[in-house]
Amino acid sequence: MGSHDHLFKVLIVGDGHVGKTSLVHRYVEERFCKSYKSTVGVDFALKVLPWSNTETVRLQLWDIAGQERFTSMTRIYYKEASGCVLMFDVTDPSSFRNCHRWKEDLDSKVRLAGGSPVPCILLANKCDLSPWQVSRESVEAFSESNGFVAWIETSVKENKNISESMRYAVGAVCHDPDTLLTNGDEKEQVERHFPPDDSPFGLHVSFPMRVTMFLVLLGRMLVEKMMASRSIAATPEKMGSSFKLNDLATPMASHFGEKQLIHE
């Protein structure tokens, strides 16, 4: 029996400083970054997960900037999303209050092919810190009233519930949240991803999504040039399996006109 690859685009959204980029570092590269560098627009990363003996899930993670000045671009970033992770900081009540705005923004700008909302899980990050400035009862009520698949307490720093929450997100995308939580060994088997020579930065995406990513990167390039002209260091550095602007722009441009890479 042949193998099947499933490509899912999963958004990582929420206010700035809540730990979204650290989540991606921890999940994709299994490391925690103490230093903070604000995301400019959007960053990309790829995670490959064995799904079954015959299926592989490729998670395309879109780390969306939390700063308000980038919200006008979210319609472009959200395009063709299969799932979403909305994160807030339990020690910052404003980041929790703003989750309502983020969920409304998501639901108003992207839907699944059948018209239903994109499945979304809510992460209560920095749960290792105390005291919480948000009650668990408030989070529970908000999650239920706003159609989240689930809410999960996480600590990126302590690596608590990171793989588990992302597995749940994949299960939600596949309409069976329990599958990845109970199938196979508890220890996650991860295939490290490195760009093959015949694929632009290793992301196998449909032509419409490549157009979207190309436009997003052009926008980021303009933003970074503007910031650089103001003596603000904005150029992100390469992050292992995460793909940054300087790494993507050239190979994307060179492959942009080539044949569609895939699919499902």
TrEMBL record:
InterPro entries tied to this protein: P-loop_NTPase, Rab29/Rab38/Rab32, Small_GTP-bd, Small_GTPase
Keyword ATP-binding: no
Keyword ATP-binding: no
SUPFAM superfamilies: P-loop containing nucleoside triphosphate hydrolases
Subcellular location per the Swiss-Prot or TrEMBL entry: Endomembrane system; Membrane
Molecular function GO labels: GTP binding; GTPase activity
Classification via PROSITE patterns: ARF, RAB, RAS, RHO
Main location: membrane
Annotated GO CC locations: late endosome; lysosome; membrane; phagocytic vesicle; trans-Golgi network
SMART domains referenced in this protein's UniProt entry, alphabetically: RAB (SM00175), RAN (SM00176), RAS (SM00173), RHO (SM00174)
Cited PANTHER family: RAB FAMILY (PTHR47981), RAS-RELATED PROTEIN RAB-7L1-LIKE ISOFORM X1 (PTHR47981:SF42)
Role noted for this protein: The small GTPases Rab are key regulators in vesicle trafficking.
UniProt-listed NCBIfam families: small_GTP (TIGR00231)
Family: Belongs to the small GTPase superfamily. Rab family.
Name under which the protein is recorded: Ras-related protein Rab
